[in-house]
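Work Package 3 (structural annotation) set out to generate three-dimensional models for the target panel prioritized at the project kickoff. During this period the team completed the workflow that converts sequence records into discrete structure tokens, so that structures can be stored uniformly alongside our sequence database. As a representative example, we reproduce one entry of 196 residues exactly as it appears in the project archive.
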Amino acid sequence: MKIGTYDLNTNRKPFILAECCNNFQDSLPIALRMIEFAANCGADGVKFQHRRRLSVDQLVELRLAAKANGLQFICTAYDYAGIGDVATLTDAFKIGSAEVASQEFCKAVFQLANVVDKPVIVSTGGMEWKDVKRVAAQAVGYDVPIVLLQCTSIYPTPPQFTNLNVMQHYQMLGTDHLVDFHPGYSDHTGRVEYPI
């Protein structure tokens, strides 16, 4: 599985994605500085959220800046129009845990991901095991590579609630379905020892 030019199957280290979110205060210059900062910190990619705070042209500028800094660019969409907006820009689609509840939204993401041949990253914070299995099966149905992120939706997450062992279950889901699955971790502890 590749996220842009980064090959998860052959690379010897984890893919580190810096979450830029909406923390740039609607300022393109701040967002551009965040990209440079992420690159200087050794991240492999940056992720923004497409909530109409930036225009598509500004997202293009962020993607170009990410590439100039050697980073993969990911942008999470939260509605159907947004999925189309980011399709050619993002190196992987991202579905937030709240959006996983909508099977139709997931279907739209998986369909487009299949067409443009890009993987899908799914955050599982707040999901039950049955929801994880359902979205994994949906991805299989569309032959889409998927990264399932273990995530605890508590901000900040107390270390005892990180439950990192669940990633082994996500790996087994991939083995059961014989598709390109990868487990990952979305950290909300605010500490460095858990993500690394």
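The two ends are 21 Å apart (CA to CA).
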